[in-house]
């Protein structure tokens, strides 16, 4: 037996006192983080709204790069398509070592026709198709190590800045889609509203949403604990966010800022005194991104899955208590 | 009318460090972090090997627990008729806000009998049961709070007294290598000199290789890891199988209080890397590879079990309509009438069971209020 000697201890602080009480289980967080960084993240955002509401510009502003289809696809001129199309564009973006595959799903043609009845159907079908694709991968005998996630995590709905209240189309769409996907309504092109008009409009919208039983993100029933509830209540009192998008920079007070220049002044996109773009960005990206994905996978997707597992075997009976108009409309 | 066209392109990098270009999704790992801290983690560790190899002491040393305080050790007579049991102890550990639900699965009686034929069977049965339970939960309708009781790692204790692997060691590890991450350890390493340990390890590594035993492999380092991490990783890999010593007693050595064993000829310090590989084992098991152990269990061992299970069920069902199906199957192609009837029957049964379960849960909830 060798005489006891002190040896260097790897990975631990060189200390003269043995730490009797530290096992080191908190290191698993670092292990998780390493793995997540290696794998990268996925995010799928859908934008819905009539032509000309600034959807593409807003996406570009959010991610500070040209992520919308308009810049990727060479189109001769912007024509309103005869029917609703669903177009996905994916980009690999990276920030501080964190890699993300961002997919922006555009829905040109929505709400642009003369007769817009059932215009939500192709969108609903698309969302359900993504759930179906995921489900098929999950029940496969030989499953992939990481199932590619094409499910729509978040649907940003653009409300035109009428200043009055929600239109029937808005209500119809949000009522149906809020049951299958996270909806984040925004007031588009909000630089046409004064602050008073904006506040009035928001209040009316919130009333309309409540009156129609529409649950937009962050949904009250999915708050996990007191801490979540407090944070989310503050957000619920502010939505829908009134946004202005821009990918042009201007010189303001010696700094270069994103904005829109008019004769009466320059609207600074990231200035919360001017518009609420920064709040939207913080919600979607900096604080609630993971939560949005979690709600999609643990709630919306699970509801779809339960419905599918039941419907093949028992016909029209749905045990999850959901009204089945969404399933039957297809 | 509905065109789902997909384009991929490399957008100009949105990631320069100055505030102007900062989007903010670099905070994603932290958002993930927050959720995991709230949920907590679980980990199931199995220990296997004959009685008296220091399994319980080692587990207590690793996790600073006192799991078998009131254990009554059997005497020789009682042991003659003892069969291999499976015992489970669960303990909740919290450190720096991170919660871990640790389950230790012990296998008392393993290898202790005169005739040890198939002494591994209760062990594999246990592991399979956990897989099956997880499979049911995962395929079921309510997947909200699935508990992961699958065995993530099996520490197999090899006695230091012999010259290498014994037949029971080889058989056990070969049978278990496809079901669980096997980590062989040299137990009670304080009865070997450093030279003897070195030779023993070489011998074991050769025999493990020769017999085709697939033990848990540490994943390779990324090329972009820092040098300290790579060095640590190299040393870890070169010291396997780990030679361990455990102790729950504190002794005084070189003017300090250390965890160790007091002999007339000196003091063995458990946490001294010059004395044994305890620290390496603890680092590997808890601080660097716990997540990987769980991943391999989920991505390889469990998937193998699941694939086999489905294929067995599918072939049984097509040949024998009376076979019980434990999970709701989603018919992928149009099944024949017989299969459809069976599926419908099973589904109704499942729904009834779930309704019963819901009622029971509600009753329990009402009692709690």
Helices and strands in order, then pairings?
The complex is a heterodimer of chains A (330) and B (369).
Chain A: H1 27-39, E1 41-48, H2 55-63, H3 69-72, E2 86-95, E3 98-106, H4 121-139, E4 154-159, H5 168-177, E5 183-187, H6 195-211, H7 226-236, E6 241-242, E7 249-252, E8 255-262, E9 265-268, H8 277-287, H9 289-314, H10 325-328
Parallel strand pairs in A: 1-3, 1-4, 4-5, 5-6
Antiparallel strand pairs in A: 2-3, 7-8, 8-9
Chain B: E1 4-9, H1 28-39, E2 41-48, H2 55-63, H3 76-80, E3 87-95, E4 98-106, H4 121-139, E5 153-158, H5 167-176, E6 182-186, H6 194-210, H7 227-238, E7 242-243, E8 250-253, E9 256-263, E10 266-269, H8 278-288, H9 290-319, H10 337-368
Helix pairs in contact in B: 8-9
Subcellular location (chain B): Cytoplasm
Keywords (chain B): Cell cycle, Cell division, Cytoplasm, GTP-binding, Nucleotide-binding
InterPro entries (chain B): G_SEPTIN_dom, P-loop_NTPase, Septin
Fraction of residues in β-strands of chain A: 15-25%
CATH T-level topology of chain A: Rossmann fold
- Domains of chain A, number: 1
Largest sheet of chain A: 6 strands, mixed
Averaged pLDDT of chain B, please? 81
- Overall helicity of chain A: 25-40%
**Protein chains sharing the most extensive interface:** A-B, 94 and 99 residues
Overall CATH architecture of chain A: 3-Layer(aba) Sandwich
DSSP helical segment count of chain B: 10
Q: How does the helix and strand content of chain A classify structurally?
A: alpha/beta
The major β-sheet of chain B equals: 6 strands, mixed
Strand order of the largest sheet of chain B: 3-4-2-5-6-7
What would the average pLDDT of chain A be, to the nearest integer? 83
Main sheet of chain A: which strands, in order across?
A: 2-3-1-4-5-6
Q: What order do the helices and strands of chain A follow?
A: HEHHEEHEHEHHEEEEHHH
Q: Tell me the CATH topology of chain B.
A: Rossmann fold
Family (chain A): Belongs to the TRAFAC class TrmE-Era-EngA-EngB-Septin-like GTPase superfamily. Septin GTPase family.
GO cellular component, one term (chain A): cytoskeleton
Subcellular location (chain A): Cytoplasm, Cytoskeleton
Domain Septin-type G (chain A): 39-311
């Amino acid at each position: 037996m060798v005489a006891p000697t002190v040896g260097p201890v790897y990975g631990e602080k060189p200390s003269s006192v043995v730490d009797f009480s530290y096992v080191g289980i908190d290191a698993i967080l670092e292990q998780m983080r390493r793995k997540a960084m290696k794998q990268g993240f996925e995010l799928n955002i859908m934008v819905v709204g009539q032509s000309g509401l600034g959807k593409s510009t807003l996406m570009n502003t959010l991610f500070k790069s040209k992520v919308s289809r308009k810049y990727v696809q060479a189109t001769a001129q912007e024509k309103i398509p005869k029917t609703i199309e669903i177009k996905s564009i994916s980009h690999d973006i990276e920030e501080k070592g964190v890699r993300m595959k961002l997919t922006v799903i555009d829905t040109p043609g929505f709400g642009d026709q003369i007769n817009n009845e059932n215009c939500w159907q192709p969108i609903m079908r698309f969302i359900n198709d993504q759930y179906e694709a995921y489900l098929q991968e999950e029940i496969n005998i030989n499953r992939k190590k990481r199932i590619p996630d094409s499910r729509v995590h978040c649907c940003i709905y653009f409300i035109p800045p009428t200043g009055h209240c929600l239109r029937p189309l808005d209500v119809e769409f949000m009522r149906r889609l809020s049951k299958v996907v996270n909806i984040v309504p925004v007031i588009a092109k909000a630089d046409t509203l004064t602050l008073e008009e904006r506040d009035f409009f928001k209040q009316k919208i919130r009333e309309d949403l409540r009156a129609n039983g529409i649950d937009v993100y962050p949904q009250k029933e999915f708050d996990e604990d007191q801490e979540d509830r407090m944070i989310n209540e503050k957000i619920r009192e502010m939505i829908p966010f009134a946004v202005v998008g821009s990918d042009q920079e201007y010189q303001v007070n010696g700094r270069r800022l994103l904005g829109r220049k008019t004769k009466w002044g320059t609207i600074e996109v990231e200035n919360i005194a001017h518009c609420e773009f920064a709040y939207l960005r913080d919600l979607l990206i900096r604080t609630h991104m993971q939560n949005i994905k979690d709600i999609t996978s643990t709630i919306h997707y699970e509801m779809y899955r339960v419905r599918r597992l039941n419907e093949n075997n028992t016909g029209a009976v749905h045990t999850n208590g959901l009204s089945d108009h969404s399933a039957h409309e297809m | 009318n509905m065109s789902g066209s997909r384009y991929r392109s490399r957008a100009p990098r949105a990631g320069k460090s100055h505030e102007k270009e900062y989007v903010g999704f670099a905070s994603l790992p932290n958002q993930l972090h927050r959720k995991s801290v709230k949920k907590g983690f679980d980990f199931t560790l199995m220990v296997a090997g004959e009685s008296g190899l220091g399994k319980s002491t080692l587990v207590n040393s690793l996790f600073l627990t006192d799991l078998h305080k009131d254990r009554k050790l059997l005497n020789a007579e009682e042991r003659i008729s003892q069969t291999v049991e499976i015992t489970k102890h669960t303990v909740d550990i919290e450190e720096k806000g991170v919660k871990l639900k640790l389950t230790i699965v012990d296998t008392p009686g393993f290898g202790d009998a005169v005739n040890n034929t198939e002494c591994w069977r209760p062990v594999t049965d246990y592991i399979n049961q956990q897989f099956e339970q997880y499979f049911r939960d995962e395929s079921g309708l309510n997947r909200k709070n699935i508990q992961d009781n699958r065995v993530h790692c099996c520490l197999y204790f090899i006695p230091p007294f012999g010259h290498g692997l014994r037949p029971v060691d080889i058989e056990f590890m070969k049978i278990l290598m496809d079901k669980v991450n096997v980590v062989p350890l040299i137990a009670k390493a304080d009865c070997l000199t450093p030279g003897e340990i070195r030779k023993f390890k070489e011998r074991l590594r050769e025999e493990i290789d020769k017999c085709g035993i697939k033990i848990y492999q540490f994943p390779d380092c990324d090329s972009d890891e820092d040098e300290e991490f790579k060095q640590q990783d190299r040393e870890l890999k070169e010291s396997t199988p780990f030679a361990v010593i455990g102790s729950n007693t504190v002794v005084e050595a070189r003017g300090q209080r250390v965890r160790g064993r007091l002999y007339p000829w000196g003091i063995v310090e458990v946490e001294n890397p010059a004395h044994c590989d305890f620290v390496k084992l603890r680092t590997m098991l808890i601080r660097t590879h716990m997540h990987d152990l769980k991943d391999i269990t989920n991505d390889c061992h469990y998937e193998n079990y699941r694939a086999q299970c489905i294929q067995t069920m599918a072939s049984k069902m097509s040949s024998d309509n009376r076979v019980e199906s434990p999970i709701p199957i989603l018919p992928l192609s149009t099944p024949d009438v017989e299969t459809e009837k069976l599926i419908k029957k099973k589904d109704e049964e499942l729904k009834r069971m779930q309704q019963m379960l819901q009622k029971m849960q509600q009753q329990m909830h009402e009692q709690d209020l």
